[in-house]
Description:
Bound molecules: 6-O-phosphono-alpha-D-glucopyranose
Enzyme class: transferase
Radius of gyration: 20 Å
Structural class: alpha/beta
EC number: 2.6.1.16
Mean pLDDT: 95
Helix content: 40-55%
Subcellular location: Cytoplasm
Order of helices and strands: HHHEHEHEHEHEHHHEHEEHEEH
Keywords: Aminotransferase, Cytoplasm, Glutamine amidotransferase, Repeat, Transferase
Distance between the termini: 31 Å
Strand content: 15-25%
Oligomer: single chain
Strand order of the largest sheet: 2-1-3-4-5
Shape: globular
Active site: 357
Amino acid sequence: DASDIEKGTYPHYMLKETDEQPLVIRKIIQKYQDEQGNLAIDQEIVDAVNGSDRIYIVACGTSYHAGLVGKQLIEKMAGIPVEVHVASEFGYNLPLLPEKPLFIFISQSGETADSRAVLVAVKELGHKALTITNVPGSTLSREADYTLLLHAGPEIAVASTKAYTAQIAVLSILADVVAKTRGRADNLNLVKELGIVANAMEVLCDSKEEMDYIAREYLSFTRNCFFIGRGMDFYVGLEGALKLKEISYIQAEGFAGGELKHGTIALIEEGTPVIALATQENVNLSIRGNVKEVAARGANPCIISMKGLDMEEDRFVIPAVHELLTPLVSVVPMQLIAYYAALHRDCDVDKPRNLAKSVTVE
Ligand code: G6P
């Protein structure tokens, strides 16, 4: 509907789309529920996933980052091994495939040329493909065997926000439905947990002033910024760094906390901002150890943690959600911090230099 593509009172599409995320999650829950209120996915898609001995997720950019989270969800919930590949690399570097691979293409636009090239190649080899996209009838949707829609509504800002969270939500539903088919009792009530996520996102969308403040405090004068985390938090850090570089042009990189000492820590100087995510119980102490290491070398750490795992030194605490679903929530501060950092630097938030919303050339 036309009102979807109006900015309304928002100064930028990116801010509007960030704010839409709670609604999008609720819409996805509704779209993927059957009449009994159970999560449901087309049986042929469930069969294709269930019947596969290894899943290959192929994507670019933000969609690739959603794929990294998707791997964890599918492996932990459904118990099927998953590999995640950047499309442009996969194209000429095909790994040794198992007997029954299934390819999942994640693409907001459904038009990305690098992803399409891989789709064409694997179809030629006779393999099955599922496209997860926001655009019904897009090229990747038409050319794959199956499609799952994101129902996120049009995403106009070049920097992707609601498509990322929608991709993760849809992947979680796919993982959950397949897990139940495989008789894996995980006691996870995903409808309820995604509802909690939507509420938590709302709290974060109401914390804009605080995000603006963090952006001012840490990113006003810096030329670089690092994001660290472990597990899910590492993947969200990659996305946080991508958001920041895309729209504010600050050199930003995401690193696995444990890898710091193997090289990256050499980059830490007096005042270097390091945004550390701490939403995972099993690595909470380790990531805090990494924060101490960088702080001892002069870094300016900004810890964003989750309620229940929080400590006094944390700069911001996000509401608690299920530990498999934290990326849906922890990414919101990343998006908003990047937004305000770009704003403070007078950057064109919705149309950053050198970037296109949809890259249809290889
Ligand atoms: C472009 C956009 C990114 C996006 C990537 C993949 O580079 O600027 O925001 O993540 O393409 O796009 P897709 O439509 O395939 O998800």
